[in-house]
Model the fold of this input.
Amino acid sequence: MNRSPGSFSRAVLFLFVGLLAGLGLGILLHTLTSGVFNATYFADIPSWMLGFLLGTLGFFYGLLGYFGVVRGLIFQVLGTLLGAGLVSAVRALLKTSFFDLATFGLTEPAWVFGGLVGAVAFLAGVGALSDWWKWARGEETHDHHEDIPGWRKYFGVSLDHKVIGIQYTFTSLLLLSVGGLFALIFRTELAKSGLDIISLNFYNTLMSLHGMVMIVSILVGIAGVINYLVPLLIGAQDMAFPRLNAFSYWVAVPAAVLLLASLGLGGFDTGWTGYPPLASRAPVGIQMFYLGVWVAGWSSILGALNLIVTVLRMRAKGMTAFRMPIFVWASLATSIISLTATQLIGLSFQMSMFQRLFGMPFFDAAKGGNPVLFQHLFWFYSHPAVYVFVLPGLGIISELLPVFVRKPLFGYRWVALSSIGIALVGFLVWAHHMFTSGMNEYLRVPFMYSTLLVAVPTGVKFFSWVATLYKGKITTPVPMLFVLGGIVVFLMGGLSGPPNATVSTDLHLHDTYFIVGHFHDTMFGGYIFPFFAALYYWFPKATGKRLNETLGKWHFWLMTPSFLILTLFMMRVGLLGMRRRIADYDPALGFDPWHLAMTIAAFGIALAVLIFFYNIYKTLKSDQMATGNIWNSRSPEWQVPSPMPAHNYDHEFEVVGEPYDYGLPGSTYVKM
Amino acid sequence: MNHENHSGSLYQGLVIFVILAFLTAVEYFIAITNASVLLLSIVAFIKVGLVMYYYMHVYKLAQEDDEHDHHSYAWKLATNRLGLWLFLLSDSFVFGGLFISRFNLLGFTRPPLNQFLGLIVTTVLLISSFFMNRGETQMARGDRKGFMLSTAITFLLGLGFLVGVVFIEWPNAAAEGLTVSGSAAGGIFYMMTGMHAFHVLTGLIFLVIILRNTARGHYSAEKHWAVEAAAVYWHFIDVVWIFFYPALYLIGKLM
Done:
């Protein structure tokens, strides 16, 4: 991907070329549709707009086109125009409407097809497909791929799992900020009863997008940690399929763009679940939402496939199943779910998309369809998905705890198998989201019991953590603080779960803020806290610099109480009858002070995350290096100097002992 | 198992094809006599088992390769194979979801479809699987000319299947009143056949790629992973249809 840097003069040249091309194209279309050429077309506003759009794209292509991601985004816009134009042209030839002001100029099929072509064009533009294209043409590609040195490699296609891991993590933090910003906006609206700041539709759109943007952020975040760590932990040079790995990352970028594009196309008001029949009459933005999730699903599926093959085929000598680090077990369990169940959310969204596009009445009861079918297909993924989100996080907790307690992990085998257990039981619980949906009543009790069964393997993890902490030499640097915070918060999420799983209480709690409080606890305890723990812990491994402890402590001690206030108050107003997903509430309910407190707490979390970003910035600018085994870990990646060398380990290591035998004299895990 | 790269012999492929054709006839016979869902399911599972074992060679996944050399062809081959099968596992969840949706929406009724046409396209796809297997076996023996011919026939039969479903069966069903937007039955019929047809289309593209690259002198008896992958994918399309055919044409009372 070596391309020469752009220059300003070339950018200006491309600007004019784009402008003229757009203007010319507009006038040509005008002439073709009206049949005669008319000089007044030169004053045509849409043609000029097209010209300006192409001119701007040309400008940026000339200036920054050597960055893969810029090329990709420009291609995505062009691809969207091309796909949408194609559909519109076909519709014009068939003499059906090809222009619709209600759906932002183009018709709905044009937007959807354009969005799909745009996503593929992004991948072509960034260069994620070029090696496969060569293979299809029967050409050879280099097995060893050298990256350009410096920070530029992060903005284009790289096949190195460490670079991809960092790309994923950066994207995840970006999406976390976007999703958090959405939450802050509608949280501000909720601070006081009455509709003061934003419109109903905008509230609904932000609330729905907050959910899905955060989910994609989490999926991308766990993919980042998994990508960076698993090959290092198992002693592999890279993932099994490096090109597929790059593809999995880059396909998530146009997916995120599509998701956010729904904002510009009228938004949607269904919540992140996208249930029909409401989805059937939502604005056209819902199609971009469906498409974005569908495309993001491929990132998840193919990343999981890659991970499973990597773990099964590329472990170091001597690393038997029960000598694998817990994080590797957790990644494997997560990937089993991602690989298979993700297809079902894709299918449910695709069917709902087609119901809108072609009128296929899958979920339209008037034509023999069944709206509950959508919910079954949707939750078959979307419930196990929460285990996709938390399992790697819980794995990180088990991974880091022994390091900071200087004691062996209690019950290693049980903890390892509990991840797989949660993943497998997770496939059997989806209908507990549908106790009030009007599904067949005989399904309620079996799903209640299967859901409560999840508490067993999860309990195993908790007992292991508590027993590991017991009588340990506990030190609390920042990563350990986040580990302990994660355990406490996830415990709260876990304990507030069974009331939702029990049919009798769920009938009252369903769709209230109690649920919102519950799942934010599980997401923070199972993902956000461990994710930050992992970032603080492995940041020195990736960069050779250690994040500032004082700022880290500020981050933790501001975020944790804020978060606890937020979710405990959510549960309280939920129990008292506050419905979720609504933009306004009756002041007579007396929720105003509670909501105000929650809004302030939400800003506290935002401030804490800002401190974290400042910490990253400050640490990267400083010259202080931390190249050694700063946590005194037994894990192989800490036995080599930081930052990690480009091709990982010089020599393959051999596993000769148990991974977590901290504090036992004379025990070794790896022989380097 | 024999010495020819564990890919079975031409003779074995033919025997399996005859059994599969016989079982298809049995399926049709069951459907027109007592229409037992249990019997139809048993036959479908036997057919899928035969295709997966003898045509897709699923047992190769369990083959030991004790080589720790990650740059060797044998290691890469085994790794790629595992990746492909995991992809097929993932993909089968889409088709499984469609299959379950069909029974959720229609129960034990079936849409009015042209039985004759259904049997024809099913047979065409089955014959294409036979030729695909034949082609792969020929490649494993170094018979590149034979491979080209067999794969070209596979391609033509696959194209015939695609045309039969999309350009004959679809207009035919629409004329019978089974339209895309008219009823959930129509919706799920077009969705199931459409998703399957999309996979046939991608399979045809893979066939074109391996044909073109063989013509340009790539692949050998020892190294032809792309051929194996395209063949396994092609048989997977057949496996899906083995379930979809009875689900759409044979099971349930005519609505």
Observations:
- Chain B touches chain A through 37 residues (CB under 8 Å).
- The CA atoms of residues 3 and 9 of chain B lie 10 Å apart.
